[in-house]
Amino acid sequence: MQVVHTIADLRAALAGRGRPAFVPTMGNLHAGHLALVRQAKPLGDVLVASIFVNRLQFLPHEDFDSYPRTLQKDCKVLEAESCDIVFAPRESDLYPQPQTFVVQPDPQLADILEGHFRPGFFTGVCTVVLKLFGCVFGGNPGTAVFGRKDYQQQMVIRQMVRQFALPIDIVTADISRAPDGLALSSRNAYLSPEERSQAVQLSRALQTLAQSALAARQALPTLESDAAQALGAQGWEVDYLTVRQRGDLQAPAGALEAGHLVALGAARLGRTRLIDNLEF
Ligand code: PAF
Fold first, then answer.
1. pLDDT at position 218, please?
2. Of the candidates 18, 29, 33, 254, which lies 20 to 30 Å from 76 by C-alpha distance?
């Protein structure tokens, strides 16, 4: 496995290797990332993982500085997964000058939910992902794998790829969960032992919301605010708990139809903000 830091070294490492399968990450890899890597492996001729904590997608008060950076450990686990190339650019490699050209995603999709609570987040994500795609694929066809835990992110990226006519297949991988049901996330490392034992309450709240939405005994906004209140009563600070249409993440129009919906949630437990979702 080659570990490269510069775009030039990445391109040299990729030359003549065929079609890349690519897994972009911010490092601090856990079993969820490794599931993405395993899924990506047979989808290309050469498997590339990137590790880059992207400043552009963090708000000033967020955890950019404290985000765990564990490059050596990450490389060991990637090597064990038969990754071919790790692209781990320094900030000066990926952003040698301030990134003044940015991708402005469709506000209908990107300014709701995560984008509402983290303004500019998807501009930062799309800008770095487009740049990473340029580095890895250079306009050639390939496949990139993203996790479905970041449900809105994979939708925004799909839309970007479609609208810019990039020859890249976007594959989404199922959410990896701990045995108690907590969605795996690098940010779970911030949880105290007590918070960790409570953290599964978020996914349980989504299950309850989905069940009560289908039972449809009350209007959806009432069910959503009841769900937020119940989670709040367990000590969480809720950003949103909501049921949306899978196709566009808008509030469902008309009768709720199982098989087309997703319950999405974001909430803070202590200083840790967690997100999760459940298709139903
Ligand atoms: O999902 C992530 O880890 C990041 O948002 C990504 C896609 C690597 C872009 O920085």
1. 85
2. 18
